[in-house]
Design brief:
The complex is a heterodimer of chains A (about 290) and B (about 280). By secondary structure, chain A is an all-alpha fold. Helices cover about 75% and strands about 5% of the residues of chain A. The longest helix of chain A has about 35 residues, at about 255-290. By secondary structure, chain B is mainly α. Chain B starts with a helix and ends with a helix. Classes of the chains: A mainly alpha (about 290), B mainly alpha (about 280). β1 of chain A pairs parallel with β1 of chain B, so a sheet runs across the interface.
Chain lengths: ~290, ~280
């Protein structure tokens, strides 16, 4: 759709600007302020320049946490996006069953994060959890609090359980917007199932898929509560992702300077990746003329 | 070609995997989703001694004592009330400011619009861990610490951008001719927006409200940081059982089950809106 140039539109955006400016810019400035200063306590701060940034960029601790974080995000995206699309394609289209499936699928999305953690913590325990107990009975030694691989598998399965429905629901919304005429035309052309998916369903889902992938990437990159409740970042540091590390640093050790510098770089990394992603997706949009 | 629903299914059935396959897939997926939740419900209906001593697929000794604890102890049930208050406030504020902004983004181009849009989204991407401490200082300094409005405002940080984004998508789907016709018919902008435009995107508003509700309801870190007593959320209340001597699994499970209920109600409400929206899109 062609948009009219109208500078008065700024007035419509103004409330959002004021509100988000108040709750984002001011706090962010505080963080910037801390990141360039050092303190010996007593609220006495002095200029430290880029010292903290320099120190963090060369710290192995941050590198490892970042590595784990990227691995985690890539794995869950690789599982959740195809699985979500696949589920959406198989969902009933209308009637009572469609409603029931929609409601049931949305349930995990509305469970508070710490409850999700609690659910899986209980579910996976060898003594009182269905999953842990069953695996133990099957002769598979499984213990997420001792074995790093098991901890990873638990956290990944938990995330898939928690968030695949979001991808599925958004894809489903995209699929619902395709008029039947498209399918009828495809049928006349005797298009294969794959071609229907590739040339009709996928382009129509592109917009919502972009939202889904962005949301999933950002949320998985900031994941804190769920793995913290289940594994506490362990065993060792095996599941210590960036946010867990940051909170350890800021609230556990109360290193305000390094924590603030960490926060800023963390934020910038997310910003950069999302910007690349956003640009690529919008360009795709333009090319296909959707 | 006939337009009856039966024919549509068969015409699509040729290329889609057959119905039975999809039923199996959905059933397997739903079982995977429901099992851990079932386990939580199962735990909530057992006594702590039973949880720790016997392994059983259903409660041998059915008890509602865990729920009774929650409904009689004010520090528990006020957690739910507080959560509902700030979530509702947040949803209303988010939608109220996001609606005009989304309209501006979908209809007009103006200086800096793309940058502004992206800047908004960056706030959705900001890790809450980064904002916890600064928010605490900010709201304490203006005397809003431990109030519902503080948490509601803090949550707008990620909910407003999301609401703008979702609404913009829905608004783009409404033909511009509708706006123009309304202006020719003599509608003023506010009247047009409320009387004509809002009903057209009601499903979009429903979806946006759903997401605002959801993200505010499930958020723990900020709501815990910004409240101590008066506005303490249920999520923060639940962490109490963990810190207490020994884990009270039964009450924790019961509280978890109760946190799922408002969400389920909201989904049920939005579901009708979505269905209506979809019906409109299918000409």
């Amino acid at each position: 759709m062609e948009k009219t140039v109208n500078q008065k539109a700024w007035f419509l955006v103004l409330p959002v600007l004021i509100l988000v400016g108040f709750s984002a810019v001011i706090p962010l400035m505080t963080v910037v302020n801390y990141s360039v200063q050092d303190t010996f306590g007593n609220n006495q701060f002095f200029w430290a320049g880029l010292e903290w940034f320099d120190e963090l960029l060369h710290s192995e601790r941050l590198h490892n946490a970042l590595g784990r974080q990227i691995t985690f995000s890539l794995i869950i995206l690789a599982i959740e996006v195809p699985l979500g699309i696949f589920i959406a394609l198989n969902m009933p289209k209308k009637g009572f069953w469609a409603s029931l499936v929609l409601v049931l699928m949305s349930l995990p999305l509305l469970i508070p994060y710490n409850v999700v953690g609690t659910i899986w913590q209980i579910f996976g325990r060898v003594d009182i959890g269905l999953l842990g107990y069953t695996l133990g009975k099957l002769g598979i030694s499984y213990n997420y609090s001792q074995d790093a691989v098991h901890a990873w598998l638990t956290v990944i399965v938990m995330d898939v359980w928690h968030w695949t429905s979001l991808v599925a629901l958004l894809s489903y919304a995209g699929l619902q917007s395709i008029p039947d005429a498209f399918y009828q035309a495809a049928k006349i052309d005797q298009a294969s199932r794959w071609k229907v998916f590739r040339y009709i369903e996928l382009p129509k889902m592109q917009g919502v898929l972009m939202i889904a992938i962005l949301l999933r990437f950002m949320d998985s990159f900031m994941i804190y509560t769920e793995p913290f409740v289940v594994t506490g970042g362990g065993p060792g540091n095996a599941t210590t992702f960036l946010s867990i590390d940051l909170v350890k640093m800021a609230l556990g050790q109360f290193d305000l300077g390094p924590a603030a510098a960490f926060s800023l770089m963390y934020f910038l990394v997310i910003l950069l990746i999302s910007w690349v992603f956003f640009t690529v997706m919008t360009n795709l949009d333009k090319r296909d003329g959707v | 070609m006939s337009d009856s629903p039966v024919n549509q299914t068969t015409s699509r059935g040729l290329s889609l995997p057959n119905i039975k396959g999809s039923v199996v897939i959905i059933t397997v997926y739903l079982v995977f989703l429901m099992l851990p939740i079932y386990w939580l419900i199962n735990m909530s209906l057992k006594s702590n001694t039973e949880i720790l001593s016997v392994f059983s697929l259903w409660p041998r000794d059915l008890t509602f004592a865990n729920y009774a604890v929650i409904f009689t102890d004010p520090s528990w049930y006020w957690g739910y009330i507080n959560s509902i208050i700030y979530v509702t406030m947040n949803t209303v504020i988010s939608l109220a400011v996001a609606l005009p902004a989304a309209y501006a983004f979908s209809r007009y181009s103006f200086i800096g619009d793309k940058h502004l849009f992206f800047w908004l989204l960056t706030n959705r991407m900001a890790p809450p861990a980064v904002f916890a401490l600064p928010f605490f200082q900010l709201y304490s300094s203006v005397g809003l610490f431990d109030t519902h409005i503080a948490i509601a405002l803090a949550h707008t940080l990620f909910n407003v951008p999301l609401a703008v984004w979702i609404l913009e998508g829905f608004m783009r789907g409404v033909p511009k001719e509708i706006d123009e016709t309304a202006y020719i018919d003599g509608y003023s902008f506010p009247k047009f927006f409320v009387k004509i435009f809002t009903p057209l995107i009601s499903s979009g508003i429903g979806v946006a409200a759903f997401f605002c509700f959801m993200f505010s309801w499930v958020e723990l870190l900020l709501s815990r940081t910004l409240a101590s007593v008066e506005a303490k959320s249920i999520a923060a209340t639940m962490t109490r059982t963990v810190s207490a001597s020994g884990l009270d699994w039964g009450v924790l499970a019961a509280a978890g089950v109760l946190t799922i209920i408002p969400g389920a109600l909201v989904i049920y409400f939005v579901r009708n809106h979505i269905a209506k929206g979809f019906a409109m899109g299918r000409v």
